[in-house]
TrEMBL record:
Coiled coil: none annotated. Pfam families: ABC_tran, TOBE_2. One of its GO terms (cellular component) is ATP-binding cassette (ABC) transporter complex, substrate-binding subunit-containing. Keywords: ATP-binding, Cell membrane, Membrane, Nucleotide-binding, Translocase, Transport. InterPro entries: AAA+_ATPase, ABC_transporter-like_ATP-bd, ABC_transporter-like_CS, ABC_transpr_MalK/UgpC-like, Mo/tungstate-bd_C_term_dom, NA-bd_OB-fold, P-loop_NTPase, Transp-assoc_OB_typ2. Residues 54-285 form the ABC transporter domain. GO terms for molecular function: ABC-type transporter activity; ATP binding; ATP hydrolysis activity. This is SN-glycerol-3-phosphate ABC superfamily ATP binding cassette transporter, ABC protein.
Length: 424
């Protein structure tokens, strides 16, 4: 029901745009104060209430008032976005998610949902739902009761609960198993019950903490696409915590990388892969890991980065003399065999079905991983020549990215203009 002044209207609104048209064209009441069920506000506010963005403003966390687990966390997660938080174990991913959920307090900063601060609101008033790593199912309740538990606690009428639960179970393809207890289900099915519970709650924001980590690799792959598909279909704003870079890469619209208490980078999977902000982000994404090699630039205004007499890189920028790091993904090397002039030796070769990982040792003990799909017959200690394909990153001594180059598919040379165009 909507009331404007003394008049009341019953309308059913599926899309914010409809309410907008309704008021601008029929009632010309765009700036009037109106009531929508129990919610009062201007039309614009009500339209926005359909949107569920989350803003983290200078969020910081300490558990003991001494050590900061997280500092300066700033980002805005848009309505309907699949947002992954990734980082190594212990970097504070779960802590951040629990603060958003309201399960633990924020030490400083502000958290806004739909442009309103929620730091003083308990979890149940934040219009969100959470899926935990261990699914948090009640062992003594069957699937149907587990999915409807939250709705019952909110005292929703029995018939409405039944309808919602049935719909959620249908969406995750569990209708046939609704009378089973959690112990009678496989890991993947339990995970689907947890998903169904989140769907049934009808919250527009869903938080997931490593929801697939208890599943085997094959099932994980299947569930990844199922969760992504559901998120899209329901238009959920989804925050997904994982330490698995592949999960983040394949599922998320955007990724936040956390390390050393801070945000290292926020961006789309492709952006993060192609333009890592530092060597940590560069090595975190991609398997096998990006090679990070110590390099030296001998003279200021020079473009040569020397790793070894037989392995040098031509920087696209003039560099001051000094030490740098060069980052090269394993697929971005060319390998030549049957050579004599080189300091690189094969240490071992791993065959992965359709490609080989070749571990190569340089004189100065650095080890380089090279991936090739060409059929290759190499022996340990065989000499090889490795040459970069002109697709590499330069990091300064602290690991910050100075430049990257896009790969060139021609003869390996890039013109100055092309180079400038692709350097950030
Ligand atoms: N209740 C607590 N009291 C004190 N320290 C805590 C508490 N919970 C977590 N920590 C610490 O905070 C840091 C971040 O923990 P958190 O669980 O958020 O990391 P994470 O990135 O989710 O790790 P993982 O990937 O291993 O789950 C860790 O050093 C952890 O020991």
């Amino acid at each position: 029901m909507i009331s404007i002044g003394k008049e009341s209207f019953f309308i059913s609104i599926k899309k914010p745009t409809l309410i907008n048209q309704f008021f601008t064209h029929s009632l010309h009441a765009k700036h009037n104060n109106i009531t929508f069920n129990t919610y009062t506000g201007t039309v614009t506010e009500i339209i926005r209430s359909e949107h569920m963005s989350i803003e983290l403003k200078n969020i910081a966390k300490t558990y003991d008032n001494k050590n900061w687990i997280l500092k300066d966390i700033n980002t805005k997660i848009e309505t309907g976005e699949f947002f992954a938080i990734v980082g190594p174990s212990g970097c504070g991913k779960s802590t951040l998610l629990r603060m958003i959920a309201g399960l633990i307090p924020i030490s400083s900063g502000d958290l806004q949902i739909d442009n309103r601060s929620v730091i003083n609101l308990p979890p149940r008033e934040r219009n969100l739902t959470m899926v935990f790593q261990d699914y948090a199912l009640f062992p003594f309740l069957d699937v149907e009761a587990n999915v409807g538990f939250g709705l019952k606690a909110r005292k929703m009428p029995e018939l409405k609960i039944k309808k919602r639960v049935a719909h959620a179970l249908e969406l995750v393809d569990l209708t046939a198993l609704k009378t089973r207890k959690p112990r009678e289900l496989s890991g993947g099915q339990r995970q689907r019950v947890a998903l169904a519970r989140a769907i049934a709650s009808d919250a527009k924001i869903c938080l997931m903490d490593e929801p697939l980590s208890n599943l085997d690799a094959q099932l994980r792959g299947k569930m990844r696409s199922e969760i992504r598909e559901l998120q899209q279909r329901l238009g959920l704003t989804l925050i997904y915590v994982t330490h698995d870079q592949i999960e983040a890469m394949t599922m998320a619209d955007r990724i936040m990388v956390l390390n050393n208490q801070q945000v290292q980078q926020v961006g789309s999977p492709l952006d993060i892969y192609q333009h890592p902000s530092n060597s940590f982000v560069g090595t975190f994404f991609g398997t096998p890991q990006m090679n990070i090699l110590k390099a030296h630039c001998p003279h200021t205004h020079n473009q040569q980065l020397i790793i070894d007499p037989f392995l040098t890189f031509q920087s696209p920028l003039d560099l001051p003399a000094g030490d740098y790091f060069v980052g090269v993904r394993p697929v971005d090397f060319d390998l030549t065999t049957h050579v004599t002039r080189t300091n690189a030796f094969v240490r071992s070769v791993e065959y992965l079905g359709n490609e080989f990982i070749i571990y190569i040792k340089l004189d100065d003990s650095a080890e380089i991983r090279v991936v090739t799909s060409e059929k290759i017959d190499l022996n340990s200690n065989e000499r090889v020549l490795i040459r970069p394909k002109n697709k590499f990153f330069i990091f300064d001594h602290s690991g910050k990215t100075i430049s990257f180059m896009k790969g060139v598919q021609n003869n390996g040379r890039t013109s100055k203009q092309e180079t400038q165009a692709i350097i950030q």
